[in-house]
Write a structure and sequence with these properties.
α13 (about 500-510) runs parallel beside α14 (about 540-565) and α16 crosses α17 (about 735-750). The longest helix is centred in the C-terminal third of the chain and has 28 residues, at about 540-565. The protein is about 25% helix and about 25% strand. The termini are far apart. The chain is of the alpha+beta class. It has three domains: about 10-125 and about 190-240 and about 245-280, Alpha-Beta Complex (Aldehyde Oxidoreductase, domain 3); about 360-390 and about 410-460 and about 625-780, Aldehyde Oxidoreductase, domain 4 (2-Layer Sandwich); about 475-620, Aldehyde oxidase/xanthine dehydrogenase, molybdopterin binding domain (Aldehyde Oxidoreductase, domain 4). The protein contains 18 helices and 32 strands. The strands form nine sheets. It has a seven-stranded mixed β-sheet, with helices on both faces. The structure holds pterin cytosine dinucleotide and CU(I)-S-MO(IV)(=O)OH cluster (CUN). The site of pterin cytosine dinucleotide has 36 residues, from α13, α14 and α16. Its cofactor is Mo-molybdopterin cytosine dinucleotide. GO terms for molecular function: anaerobic carbon-monoxide dehydrogenase activity; copper ion binding; iron ion binding; molybdenum ion binding. This is Carbon monoxide dehydrogenase large subunit apoprotein. Pfam families: Ald_Xan_dh_C, MoCoBD_1, MoCoBD_2.
Amino acid sequence: MTGFGRMPRKEDARFVRGRGTFVDDVRLPGMLHSAVLRSPYAHARITSIDTTAAEAHPKVRAVLTGADLEERGLAWMPTLSHDRQAVLATDKVRYQGQEVAFVVAEDRYSARDALALIDVDYEPLDPVVDARTALDADVPVIRDDLEGKRDNHIFDWEAGDASATDLLFESADVVVAQDMLYPRVHPAPLETCGVVADHDAVTGKLTVWATSQAPHAHRTLLALVTGIAEHRIRVISPDVGGGFGNKVPIYPAYVCAVVGSMVTGAPVKWVEDRSENLMTTAFARDYHMRGELASTSDGTMLALRVRVLADHGAFNCTAQPSKYPAGFFHVVTGSYDLRAAYCAVTGVFTNKAPGGVAYACSFRIAEASFLIERLVDLLAGELGVDPAELRFRNLLTSEQFPYVCATGWEYDSGDYPKALQLALDTVGYTELRAEQERRRADDEYLGIGISFFTEAVGAGPRKHMDIVGFGMADGAELRLHPTGKAVLRISVQTQGQGHETTFAQIVAHELGIHTDDVEVVHGDTDNTPFGLGTYGSRSTPVSGAATSVAAQRVREKARLIASALLEVDPDDLEWTPGRWSVRGAPDSGASLKEIARAAHGDVDLPDGVDGHLDGSCVYNPPNLTFPYGAYICVVEVDPGTGQVKVRRFVAVDDCGVRINPSIVEGQIHGGLADGIGMALMELMAFDTDGNCLGGSFMDYLVPTAVDVPPWELAELVTPSPHHPLGAKGIGECATVGSPAAVVNAVMDALAPLGVRHADMPLTPAAVWCAIQGRPLRADLAIE
Ligand code: MCN
Ligand code: CUN
């Protein structure tokens, strides 16, 4: 393959043979193992910790507590959202599973055994579990470690124009309103999180192998947290078995492993188990939303008003761009031409695990997109208009691009009505509605759900977007070696997205060389340029653009070298893939391979051209890219049991130019499965004591092959006008867009039974309760 198109993933050669190297595969001489003692309580004061017996265990080499870390100034670490998080608890524990002590031992089993020998005295406190009561006057203050903190309030944030929105609501013929919960879910990557930390006391160098979506950001943060100079830290993120946002933050045990290595003088491995991953690492969503949509009687949507209560758990660790505490939630008008919008988000602390961004969310667009798509369906029901028809009346048209939405973001390109029409044609909408009518007469409940979404992916620009002060721009460095083989070094980190393939394709496309001749290096801070990493589907929009520009620079440098080699003016040279040749004399030219050779040889180079054949770029994107899609889900619901069966799922996506359509489709398949999971089964629930009820895959259900239908995909290609390849991101699109299609389908099925709304996940119990008119509050096991 010498460019864009379908090709098998290069990395699969090792993955399908079981030859990947994941963090847990890293084994260093003399390496020690570790385990974390975690709080059984959601909220308790620690009165004493006795580690004597654990220290006496013959295979234990070190036991760390919060007090030990305090001596080093490491009991707390800064979070990605300007809060602080306990590394090991000193004063109180604030969620179930919080880190209390860290044991380093000769093997993993002894480390685990020794946890039972640590004696902690807790004085249980009332937990705050329901975000809706977190700001009440009589509830305990969770973050009394923060000076002067007297409540559980984190932030208030608003966007849009409140008074313009209110005016439109006053003049509207119809208003629909709905409270909805986008419940707490977990990204649940196949590989859990972990590190191997190796501190060399002689050289002062710290090497950390980590499951990391952002190795450079992690190195900088580790430097800031530990005080070790940044240039002495090397973060290596080897193969990563799925991230989905879960591997963006630094977790307390990473810091403990570093300290453990310093204390013992040996490398220390820490790898969490499934329950630790589910119960304590970055969760997603947990947004209590109230949405109101105003419209004229003929279905022209006017304005949107939204209030959100965001449950951030015990520490504010959400990884949002610094200027946007609620992420890009305010791209809340979705794909519609609304005149005004206003949204206000309040963040609160609760006694739950921290996190708050993750799981293919594009910085909270998942929640925003779900909200408006549910409201559009409710409005369609209210007006008695077909939901597809109502969308056609309000979708942006292609002439409106670039389009500035009501909250100020500039959407780059698209043809929305065409995408919706393609989805309707693919599913056979008219016939399906006729079938639904027929079957309703027989008390059978077929539902058809539409959702249309606009994503905003590829953060920066760095002027607007940074994380803890680091602007979101990414580097790429490309070098052609003397034999013409290329090595590309990038700052982003694949976790299953296939970067080793698609980034080689970008180089191949720009230079006309074969993808086999391009090696992609990533995941090692000593060998790659700085950049903020892979999340927010930013790799292709940002690092892909950097790669394209770097390759174009190599091509230009090759032209100058070719001009010396061929003794002609550079302006007389003409590019055909892989070769510069003399205009009008195609036989007289030099291939890139010959030019690479000459660049390392004795050719007299033109003035200002240094030797070797390389190019680099730090790409600061001028805007986000705005992929979008139209999804249609068809379900059958059994009203007797509440069981939902997804019969069909049609997805039309437009992510601009597709570098590798097979990989793009794989991303969409995965995201659609995510969406069905969240809509129908995934839920991180808690009981009234704050016990997490989702600690295993028996309790936290993720979809398997039997839960998903054969996907029916179709595509449009509207290039992004500002991306050098015309590509937009795709990694999170289907996860963001699909839950609303599923929920809309179930609500459509149940409409004859008078059901208007039910919160996710639509488990059989939730559906059955909705039919009985008793909505289930599933996120809290109370009643
Ligand atoms: N691609 C393409 N043409 C396009 C757009 C993308 O060929 N127009 C290719 C890319 O080159 C890349 C893949 O599709 O190989 C995804 O690209 P992109 O949309 O740029 O997203 P990222 O690579 O930045 O991946 C991040 C995104 C996020 S944020 C989550 S969360 C998620 C997702 O990717 N996590 C995943 N998909 C995942 N897929 C797997 N297997 N594992 C995860 O953890
Ligand atoms: Cu929000 S999950 Mo992805 O951006 O790593």
